[in-house]
Amino acid sequence: MPKDTFFNLPPKKRELVLDVIKKEFEKHPISEASVKDIVNDLGIARGSFYTYFENLEESYFYILDQETIEVHELLLDLLREHRGDLFKTFPDYGKALARELFKSEKHALYRNRFLYWTSDLEQQWRHYQAVNHEEKRLVMESDFMRDGNDDLKEIREFIKAVIHALIRRLFAENWDSETFLKHYDSQVQLMEHGIKSNL
Fold it and tell me: Which bin fits 192, alpha (ψ -120 to 50), beta or left (φ > 0)?
């Protein structure tokens, strides 16, 4: 979360800072983004950036948090609508996910999140979310892990792995929305009917 200094800025200045940071992460992978470019575009001293944010990663996490939807939260919202029925949920989830990932103003932010993510960034992101969204995280987990059921936990992790892999492929292979949904539907069929039945 940004420091108090950032939140004490006039609203227009705050908006400008966020806009410049967002553009930096739209243009570059996280590993190539630069505080120098951000402060040059803003016309401020480098030290000023660090009065707003702890580091470059925190500025990205804040933008990601503000500008995008957590794909897990999207799934859980739809699961609630379908009263916990995964396979009634999956078709709506695929369409909602495709709409979200291909929004022109968010596409590059998601690309950074899923294509250029590292284990270190994942650890930092989890910490950021734990500090800033602890209550929401606990509600999300309890909805999908009723009573701490270990089997449900494994199902959740399996679905997460499949969806994340699909999103990474979307960016790595430059899929359009239609191609993403074709692969998504295929993977859902495998989850529902099993690999063995398709051999």
Answer: alpha
For residue 113, the model assigns a pLDDT of 93
Spell out a b/e string for 170-179, using b for 16 or more CB atoms within 10 Å of the CB, else e: bbeeebeeee
Q: What is the pTM of this model?
A: 0.83
Please give the structure tokens belonging to residue 31: 């590993």
Block means of pLDDT (10 residues each) for the chain, length 199 residues?
A: 95 96 94 96 96 96 90 87 90 95 93 93 91 59 54 83 95 97 95 78
Measured distance CA(108)–CA(114) in Å, rounded: 10
What pLDDT score was predicted for residue 84?
85
Q: Does domain 4-56 have CATH number 1.10.10.60?
A: yes
Measure the CA–CA gap between 176 and 102, rounded to whole angstroms: 8
Nearest CA to 76 out of 97, 99, 106, 102 is that of: 97
Structure tokens at 168: 């990474």
Q: What is the torsion angle, in degrees rounded to the nearest 10, for the CA atoms of residue 140, residue 171, residue 102 and residue 141?
A: 0
Question: Degrees (nearest 5) of the Cα angle 85, 91, 97?
Answer: 110
Architecture of domain 68-198: Orthogonal Bundle (1.10)
